[in-house]
Amino acid sequence: MRLLIVEDERRLARSLAGGLTAEGFAVDVVHDGTEGLHRASEGDYDLIVLDIMLPGMNGYRVCGALRAAGDETPVLMLTAKDGEYDEAEGLDTGADDYLTKPFSYVVLVARVRALLRRRTRGARAVLTVGELVVDPGSRRVMVGEREVTVTAKEFAVLEHLAVRAGDVVSKAEVLEHVWDFAYEGDVNIVEVYISALRRKLGAGWIVTVRGAGYRLVDAGA
């Protein structure tokens, strides 16, 4: 899952990004409303954490512009304000949820997961490739009757491959969807996680397409 945080309090933004990354999300961060609207419009995000009081363009206007353009990405609004009027205005512009600062990080993560579950409920809720089952809701991986224990980042890599099952997925695509736009490390980090998944899933599930990327296939076919 790929998240965008639009928050001008840089310390808070770093803290949220670090925590959500540890939870297995790919997180991008911007610090003003104009850039937030641009990034949200151009990127492919599963959820946006949007502060209201932003330089350039406030969160109400960002959310309203996204909704006017037909963008239905879930929006969790953050604000230092407190009052029914502010909450009502945020929801009226199309926000899906609202959280007042200071807030509990545990509560924020719970709200994020609830919004993502609401969005993915249905056909994409459980991904199945032969006997391999990847369940984003419970974050469980099964191969037949065997449950496979994976880390948050391993799950994110596998989930992206499962969404594109049968297709060739490049390293660059995995990096974009599982890490973030600012990642400047070694692209071979993807190989490390692919190798770990192969050890845990067993042979045959993840095929290397030389020079192109990886393909998730039914090992039992």
Q: Describe the main β-sheet briefly.
A: 5 strands, parallel
Order of helices and strands: EHEHEHEHEHEEEEHHHEE
- Helices, by number, come to 8
Structural class by sheet pairing and helices = alpha/beta
Taking pLDDT < 50 over at least 5 consecutive residues as the criterion, the unreliable ranges are none
The largest sheet has its strands arranged as: 2-1-3-4-5
Q: Give the fraction of residues assigned to helices.
A: 40-55%
Question: Whole-Å distance between the termini?
Answer: 28 Å
Kindly state the mean pLDDT as a whole number? 86
- What gyration radius follows from the Cα positions, in whole Å? 19 Å
Fraction of residues in β-strands: 15-25%
Strand element count: 11
Shape: elongated
Question: How would you portray this structure in words?
Answer:
This protein is an alpha/beta fold and 221 residues long. 41% of the residues lie in helices and 21% in strands. The chain is built from eight helices and eleven strands. A five-stranded parallel beta sheet has the order 2-1-3-4-5, with helices on both faces. A four-stranded antiparallel beta sheet has the order 6-7-8-9, with helices on one face. Strand 8 (140-143) and strand 9 form a beta hairpin. Helix 2 (33-42) runs parallel beside helix 3 and helix 6 (152-163) crosses helix 8 (189-201). The longest helix is centred in the middle third of the chain and has 16 residues, at 105-120. The two termini are 28 Å apart. The mean pLDDT is 86.
